[in-house]
Design a protein that fits this description.
The complex is a heterodimer of chains A (117) and B (110).
Chain A lengths: L2 E5 L2 E3 L5 E8 L7 E7 L5 E7 L6 E3 L7 E6 L4 E6 L8 E8 L6 E2 L3 E5 L2
Parallel strand pairs in A: 2-11
Antiparallel strand pairs in A: 1-3, 3-8, 4-5, 4-9, 5-6, 7-8, 9-10, 9-11
Chain B lengths: L8 E4 L5 E6 L11 E6 L6 E4 L13 E6 L2 E6 L8 E8 L5 E3 L3 E5 L1
Parallel strand pairs in B: 1-9
Antiparallel strand pairs in B: 2-6, 3-4, 3-7, 5-6, 7-8, 7-9
The chains are: A mainly beta (117), B mainly beta (110).
């Protein structure tokens, strides 16, 4: 059974940093693209970033470029999202997902990130 | 501000068919057969319903179908059931290598 479990969410002040993790199991992690998607309170889903199976390349939402970094550890089946210079508008539930193709076929339950003073 | 357009809400009675549209541009929806649809119940993980425009993942009811014409993709739910009430999002691959979600459509079963 595929499982994705996010952790690392919490309350952080504007300008602060937070690192989200996503622990994967039930599939061959090193062969799949991984993705982060977020949902701000009362808003829709927003694609944030994804990373190639071998970690050699990644793509990011324009508004997080230079602030967020997606990475992975294929030896430990872990996906990360390092978030720096956080803003109030980054407040959201962050979901990790895995892609068999050009979609997200498995999702985690999400981790809440709140940026507030 | 999403680059894709979806109706804010669509409703139908049990047993009826409804269609949710998703309009983009030639740089996303119209340029690639990589449109996916997700069902999202509040507080739960989103669920993939359709991928690559019209393919259904294993386990998804055949009441759900997808199509595309030009820059507009569509999700049709036939034989509407109470459990189908949820938010539905389209998502498209873009020429930049990134992806974009639509703003979401609230489907209500009357």
């Amino acid at each position: 059974e595929v499982q994705l479990v996010e952790s690392g969410g919490g309350l952080v002040q504007p300008g602060g940093s937070l690192r989200l993790s996503c622990a994967a199991s039930g599939f061959t992690f090193s062969t799949r693209w991984m993705t982060w998607v977020r949902q701000a309170p009362g808003k829709g889903l927003e694609w944030v970033a994804n990373i190639k199976p071998d970690g050699s390349d990644n793509y990011n939402l324009d508004s997080v470029k230079g602030r967020f970094t997606i990475s992975r550890d294929n030896a430990k089946n872990l996906l990360f999202l390092q978030m720096n210079s956080l803003r109030a508008e980054d407040t959201a539930v962050y979901y990790c997902g895995t892609s068999g193709g050009r979609d997200i076929d498995y999702w985690g339950q999400g981790a809440l990130v709140t940026v507030s003073s | 501000q999403s680059a894709l357009t979806q109706p804010a809400s669509v409703s139908g009675s049990p047993g009826q068919s409804i269609t949710v549209s998703c309009t983009g541009t030639s740089s996303d929806v119209g340029g690639y057969n990589y449109v996916s649809w997700y069902q999202h119940h509040p507080g739960k993980a989103p669920k993939l319903m359709i991928y690559d425009v019209s393919y259904r993942p294993s386990g998804v009811s055949d009441r759900f179908s997808g199509s595309k014409s030009g820059n507009t993709a569509s999700l049709t739910i036939s034989g509407l059931q109470a459990e189908d009430e949820a938010d539905y999002y389209c998502c498209s691959y873009r020429s930049s290598g990134t992806y974009v979600f639509g703003p979401g459509t609230k489907v209500t079963v009357l």
